[in-house]
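A note from the maintainers: we've had questions about how concatenated examples are separated. There is no special marker in the raw files; a new sequence line simply starts the next protein. For clarity in this README we add a label.
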Amino acid sequence: MKLTVLIITILLALTLSKGAHAAEETDEAASAHGAPVAAAQLATSEEGTPQHLTRNVSAESDVVVSLYLGAGSIVVRGWDKKEVRARAGEVGRLELRRTGATDGSRGARRVEVLVSNSEDDEEMPAGEPGGTGHIELDVPRGATVNLKLRQGDVEISDVAEARVDSGNGDVDARRISRAAELSCLSGSIYLRDSSGRVRLNAMSGDVEAVNVRAADEREELIATSTSGDVRLEGIAHARVEGRTVSGSVRFIGRITDGGTYSLKTTSGDVTLAVPADSSFNVKALVVAGGEIITDFEVGAVEGTKKPITKLSKGLLAGRVGAGGAEVSLSSFSGTVYLRKR
């Protein structure tokens, strides 16, 4: 009797194992032909508490990954695997839809991350707002990541290109190697230790870029805010623009010979803080309610007999040192500072 029970148990275990293996092969085969991989269902504990969902798919090293989330938070990390892994909490369904696998390879060229709060949501259209929850993505370091989020914070690091459009929440990006295009309606933007083309735009919030360099001399860094401060430090681009309507603009670091730098605000102060041995041509303008104060002697100013270090309102235009870079500073209502570091 005991022997019979043992044999039945072994046969049942082998049957279940083969069934699970066959299901995995079916998912991979469908995905390789452009079909969506099977969506992961929400797992629950014995007490009915929602558990995290995890989904993996093989991908090319330069894969394009897209996610459109209604609300929650998103964390993206680059890793050395040729694979996209998604982990989601507080959602009903999670699907990785892959397209564009190359010939002779099972790696996807594009992956769309689809999220729903309902386990019964059979159709999850791409390009539309997904559910709500916390999503974590691990992607190849050479990936381009497109994120849209109506409400919530975004953290993204160690990828080639980051394109983020946030409605309400902060965006924090680090170690982006090729291009960063980050925008939000209400929230602040932070970019650190990155390189390449940069465009940062916040409607209501601060914008900060620290230790960012150009990969190509033609690349530019543009940082703007409507209501918030703009702070640029350790920027190695030769074409830099920082502007806001209501707030201050600060540039701290070195300027490149032959570069162009434009810092502007309507209501607030503008500060350019550069090494004492810097050389540049400067045009500084204050229209009302402020001064132009400079630690540098600005020479060759038309209509003056000696260098100027302070001017109440008006335009200060001249050369510092041997000239070279072109610097434009302006505030309608505020003070413009040229500081030696």
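[label: protein 2]
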Amino acid sequence: MSATVSINQPLHRDALPNFRNLGVILRIVGSVNLFCLLEAVLRGDSWAGIWGSLLDGAALVQPVLIMSVLALFALGDWLHGMTYRTGLVIVAALELLIVTIVYPILLEASGGSPPFRLERAWLVTALASASLLYYFHLRSRALSPALSEARLQALQARIRPHFLFNSINAVLSLMRAQPKRAEAALEDMAGLFRVLMADNRELSTLKSEVELTRQYLNLEQLRLGGRLKVEWHIDKMPGDARVPPMVLQPLVENAVYHGIEPSMSTGVIHINAYSVRDEVHVVLKNLYRKNGAHHGGNKMAVGNIRERLSLHFDAEASMSTTVIDNEYHVHIRMPYLKEAA
């Protein structure tokens, strides 16, 4: 019953965007400049008029935009600790304060005759700020179903019925001949299902994701035996890196389902995790069968993970899939965020 209640709980929590995220910064800069362009188009009655209006607006907008981005970046962690409504008020007040500071400088530079009054600058700033905050609010709500989908897939699709059935049969076959191995397999199943049934809204650690994947592969090893080989390259892995939950196991499950199961020969899955400067990279390679009957299912796990990467890290994360020399490659890039102490 408790699991059912947890599933039905809303997964979205109103929060300000991460003003230190590259994607958020780019969206702010791009949106404000687009807003200025649209205003210039509406005000100008010719190309020369549009250009003149754009330059007049840029004289105030660009200094305000630069100061706003720097201030929000510096206050990002502090704002993140605020309640959503308090944060909105602080951001709005900050923008109006910056305009009030910049306007006298513009007044002096223009010889006492600015292109528009301070009241109009306040109004435009308030409208632009409200529009941007509302956009980020809608974007967060639009992407949040990806978290819900991730949990539902974990309960319904990620543990496919045939995997559960085969794992139980494999454990039963070991009960008498190899009781210790059977016990270890049951512990792996318990650990795997514990994670899958948990609330996966918060970021996990790369070390935990690797352990979860090992448990899954241990169970598959019982069924596939020597047909499944795994090469781990994690000696340079940043285990404390914070990553979306269930970011690796579904990809490995796809590798087993699409690359190992259809063949009677040995298949190898290569898993490589490492860090470069302030980024974490996870690379997975497995045999690719062009005419395999299972390939249609690849897109579901890949698309789900890509959405969750976008939700958590925006433009600072990416995921690419390629086929090279009969191998299916998945490359995930994420910012290196360390687990809180």
